[in-house]
């Protein structure tokens, strides 16, 4: 929806004009999955799709939450602390408000109108987009002086403490710090990062939405988190490590007997091998070797499917088709899995053909159509009008 139409909607809902407009993208993770909470390297990028927020202050000491994408509406009075109330979308911005209140930022009543084009539950980080977007807006409105890294960390606290999901920092960092035409290589332990030019030449980054939504808090995400903690504790009996991703593949194979559980061993092997693939993917991008990058994507998906067991029939169907499509050189699930999206590197000239054929193939196998669109790597959170 255009900004002008959003402004009209805002005035309809709040009987006053919007004073500020902000935007935060979603993200895809190019490679490095389920290692952000294991101290690993990840390679996400922000995309052009995302969430727009229109805001105006009010004199009623009330936070009014409205969204064009959700039917629920709520008004929350200004208070000294807040708590999660049900599964409604407004808990994400409410959690951000709670964090600002905790650090002593004095807020006033606000009218919020959110509008996004990220499919909910698709694995493109709609929740991180809302969190970082709200944090950026409050930071600008009330002069809190937070950096974009601070905003990402605040969003992670909302996800962990307010929403109850043991996620890492990757999603919030990617949507806060994204850079046009660049991937972000992030060390999730130290928060050291660098930008890598994402130059894929004659290829386009395709995003294929399974249209099978998944709810992370209710999924096996926290189970995988705990399995990794179990593996870490076992390896710490002999190894001086703080995170699984500090272990090399050779060291893991020498000490995997400490784990003594085939399932936990598979989980740890995925984490350690995936971190190694991210390092190889960095070198592939630097040297312009897109074919090798694509092969690493396929290897990543195989590991997520067979060792970490977080993909599922829908995502596997997309990757199987992609492997057999001549002008696709790499594909994998992106995000936490259990549904959501896959990504693929497809020849630009073949994208329309790829889109038609994968849609037909997927519908035949799964029973309904996927969403298929090409994506551009874009900037992170920003102010549009103030």
TrEMBL record:
Where does the chain bind Mg(2+)?
127, 159
Q: Give binding positions for ATP.
A: 121-127
Q: What is this protein called?
A: Galactokinase
Q: What does this protein do?
A: Catalyzes the transfer of the gamma-phosphate of ATP to D-galactose to form alpha-D-galactose-1-phosphate (Gal-1-P).
The UniProt entry, under PANTHER family, shows: GALACTOKINASE-RELATED, MEVALONATE KINASE/GALACTOKINASE
Q: Site positions for Transition state stabilizer, renumbered to this chain?
A: 27
- Source organism of the structure: Niabella digestorum
Identify the residues that the record assigns to the GHMP kinase N-terminal domain, covering every copy: 91-179
Q: Where in the cell is it found?
A: Cytoplasm
